[in-house]
Design brief:
97 residues, mainly beta, Pantoate--beta-alanine Ligase, Chain: A,domain 2, 5-stranded antiparallel β-sheet, elongated
Length: 97
């Protein structure tokens, strides 16, 4: 199994991303290899929200008949980042008496 990724900050609010995967599987009588490169862009809209666009390509080669596969996926995402929640009040601080 191989998984590699890299990111590059083009600007303070734009991050370029790239990745690649390869998985070699052996089943009784069947050999299979899955590969998948991809690339994307992440925009940091503010400190709590980001948006991303990702393109990934998948290819499966197999020694079994009719098990070959190739396909592309384009995804769009909107992410909310929670920086941390305030600590709950202790019982001593909530009781006014």
């Amino acid at each position: 199994m191989f998984l590699g990724s890299a990111s590059y900050e083009l600007r303070p609010d734009v991050i370029l991303q790239a990745f690649a995967t390869r998985v070699q599987s052996n089943y009784p009588g069947i050999g299979r290899a899955d590969t998948g490169p991809g690339a994307g862009v992440k925009w940091l809209l503010d400190r709590n929200v980001s948006m991303n666009v990702l393109h990934s390509y998948s290819h499966r080669s197999s020694s079994a008949p009719l098990q070959e596969y190739s396909g592309s996926v384009i995804s769009l995402g909107l992410n909310a980042h929670i920086q941390g929640l305030p600590a709950p009040l202790s019982p001593a601080r909530t009781n006014p008496f």
